[in-house]
């Protein structure tokens, strides 16, 4: 496209925007006020009411067009410090008397001398042009105030949207931080347990390494997921691999079961969240217990459709362990970030000893 063609397009866009600004409701108000003005002036004018209405409507519409045009096309060379409303007001103040002058020149067939030498015509000129300027400026002021209010509302909505976006980014960053705090904890703790078995020359070392490979295959892809929440089936696979690994480390002290209700494995659930409870049960429940214990992992749906995940151990119980550490605190905060206040993580004692940890989160499907 040539430079000339580019220049020709710009005014067309401006004209279309200007015409779109002349809304039917605005035109109706202007014409209505012009008719009212003609009715008020009719007793003191010699021309018929119809002719007088034509004059007032012409002046009103010309003033409106000048006011609107000044808002779209600022005069060249005008300092930027001059506000747009001032330019529009000056345009209206000039357009009203000029339009009235055109009306009278038409009525005198272009005889300017006949206009200026006729006192009645000069009197009529003032009665039409001056009220047109005053009423037009009042209406223009109201229009500008409404425009400013609309701009203020738009800016407020944009600010609210920007703040909401910043809040969402903050939640995402916090969630990423919590995930980064949790995942290395499990990985390096498991590696430390495997290292202890390998260094002691245990004959179970090859089997342990195979289980470690299965665990890493289940865990490592989860660490880099950028999309939505993974399926619960992925988390259950990871939990089984971890418990198998721990069982090989202490075969006489740890027994476990992992049960999932039919259809529940397709539910979406944060990676590593269930593993947090399982690893906690091993470290703080089974490991300190002299005779070890059993861990049961259950996944099911409640009557209201909520997802229930329960990890029960028969270890030493909460009374014999230290206060909950950062793992559970981070998990609570992570669940709240994903599901909101409806998510719950509760711990309860199990008779005669042990702990039951339950996660309850809402599910859309």
UniProtKB/TrEMBL annotation:
- Species the sequence originates in: Pseudaquabacterium inlustre
The protein's GO terms of the molecular function aspect are: kinase activity
Q: Name one Pfam family in it.
A: HATPase_c
Q: Transmembrane ranges?
A: 25-45, 57-73, 85-105, 125-145
Assigned keywords, A-Z: Kinase, Membrane, Transferase, Transmembrane, Transmembrane helix
**Listed SUPFAM superfamilies:** ATPase domain of HSP90 chaperone/DNA topoisomerase II/histidine kinase
Q: Which residues form the Histidine kinase/HSP90-like ATPase domain?
A: 269-365
Domain of life according to the entry: Bacteria
Provide the protein name: Histidine kinase
**Database matches in InterPro entries:** Bact_2-comp_sensor_kinase (IPR050640), HATPase_C_sf (IPR036890), HATPase_dom (IPR003594), Sig_transdc_His_kin_internal (IPR010559)
